[in-house]
Write a structure and sequence with these properties.
Number of strands: 4
Strand content: 5-15%
Largest sheet: 4 strands, antiparallel
Radius of gyration: 18 Å
Helix content: 55-70%
Distance between the termini: 34 Å
Mean pLDDT: 86
Strand order of the largest sheet: 1-2-3-4
């Protein structure tokens, strides 16, 4: 019977440190905005960007925000499970899988950053508001940027890099 190990190595600790930095930056930025703003207060920064304090009770783009509260438990459970799976995946990467080694810590850090909000407050603090004219992109945060960037890199790796490695 084989022993289960994560295969944790020093390089994995470096990548997990990236996740930790994302979590710290995310939480620090959210707390800074929450300390200086009242809910829905908006302050212009440029002609296309505001800082605004918003509480998101749902997922991306406030998906399921009005679902009655069960979504907090659901999204928290998903974040915990996905983060655990991604940590195991990260620890088992080969040296050649550099894009994945960047993508996975981004998703892990972002998922945990938003998980902390859900568990602590019951919602996620969003504050970055980009817009063109009267059209506003839904407000987001540092964790969302990390998850989106990591997901994009996973997509690029799966679509382009894995195919080229198989040839």
């Amino acid at each position: 019977m084989k022993n289960f190990t994560l295969g944790l190595r020093w390089k994995n600790l470096f990548w997990l440190l990236i996740s930790a930095v994302i979590i710290v930056l995310d939480q620090w930025s959210k707390l800074a905005v929450a300390d200086q703003f009242v809910l829905y207060e908006s302050r212009p920064v440029t002609d296309f960007f505001n800082l605004v304090l918003v509480h998101n009770h749902g997922a991306a783009f406030s998906f399921l925000a009005d679902a009655g509260g069960w979504q907090r438990i659901f999204f928290s459970a998903v974040a915990i499970i996905v983060s655990m799976v991604l940590v195991v995946w990260l620890c088992r990467l080969s040296e050649k899988e550099r894009v994945l080694a960047i993508a996975l810590p981004l998703v892990i850090g972002g998922a945990i950053g938003n998980l902390i909000d859900r568990l602590a407050y019951g919602y996620v603090i969003d504050f970055l508001d980009f817009y063109v004219g009267s059209y506003h992109w839904p407000a987001f945060n540092v964790a969302d940027i990390a998850v989106s960037t990591g997901a994009f890199l996973l997509f690029v790796d799966a679509l382009f890099l894995q195919q080229s490695e198989q040839k």
